[in-house]
Amino acid sequence: MAGFRSLARQVRDPRCDLALRRYSLRKCLERFAPYGHRATWDHLCSRAGFGPEDRSPDPARLVAALEELEEARSVWLAYEVEFAARRRKEKHDGLRRPGSVDDWHRLTWGGFGVAWCDDPRVHPDGPLAEVLRRLISALEREPGSVCPVCDGERLVWKYDLDHEPSTGPVCTDCGILVPRPVLTPAARADARRGRLLMSA
To answer: Which domain of life is it from (predicted)?
Structure first.
C-alpha cells in the first residue's frame, strides 16, 4: 500500500495519467484528512477551484490542493512529535494517567478527523494549515467557550455523528466537531442544552 509521500509524487508527476493523479490525491486522504475524507475532499476542491466530481481537473489545481494538504500535514506531524515527547516526559516523571487532551488525541492519531465535519459540505473556509494551528493552540491553553477554529459562539450538541466520539459539540458556523478538551464544562453543558454560547 502506497504511503502519503509516494502518492503525492504521483499527483505531481506529469508523466502520470490525469485520472491517476486525481486518484492519488484522493488516496492521500486515506492517510491524512483533518475534516474526514469527504469533507476534506470538498474543501480541497473548492479552495483549488475544481469540482469534487470533476474527472479531468487542471493538473496545476490538483497540485495546489496537494500543497495545501501537505502544509497541513506538516503542521499536524510536528504537533504529534511534540505530543509524543511530552507524554514520554510525563511518564518518566511518574504521570501515567493521561488527561482529556490525551484521550481526544488517541482518537485522532495520524490526523484523520482532527477537526471532523459530519456534513461534508460544511467545513472551515480558511487554509487547512491555519485551521490546524488554531486547533493546536486551543489544545495548549486553558479551555474556552467558543469554537477554536472560527471563534463561533453557536455550539450545538449533536448525536449519531459518523465519527468517534459519535456525540459532541458541533460549531454551527464552521461545522467542526469541537474537541471537548478545548471547551469549559459550562460551554459543553450549554451546547448540550442547545443554548447559544456567548464569548467568555
So the answer is: Bacteria
**HSE toward the beta carbon, residue 24, CA cutoff 13 A:** 23
Q: What is the pLDDT of residues 21-76, one digit of tens each?
A: 999 999 999 999 999 999 999 999 999 999 999 999 999 999 999 999 999 999 99
**Residue range 92-144, pLDDT digits in tens:** 777 666 566 667 777 776 788 999 999 999 999 999 999 999 999 999 899 99
What pLDDT is recorded for position 197?
42
Q: Answer left, alpha or beta for residue 146, where phi above 0 means left and psi between -120 and 50 means alpha.
A: beta
The sign of the CA dihedral 21, 23, 27, 28 is: positive
Measured in residues, the chain has a length of 200
Q: How far is CA 185 from CA 125, 136, 137, in A?
A: 28, 19, 19
Task: State the Cα–Cα distance between residues 166 and 155, nearest whole angstrom.
Answer: 16
What are 55's three cell numbers? 474527472
User: pTM for this structure?
Assistant: 0.89
Taking only the tens place, the pLDDT of each residue in 161-180 is 998 889 999 999 999 999 99
Cα–Cα separations (whole angstroms), residue 150 to 27, 64, 132, 178: 28, 23, 11, 11
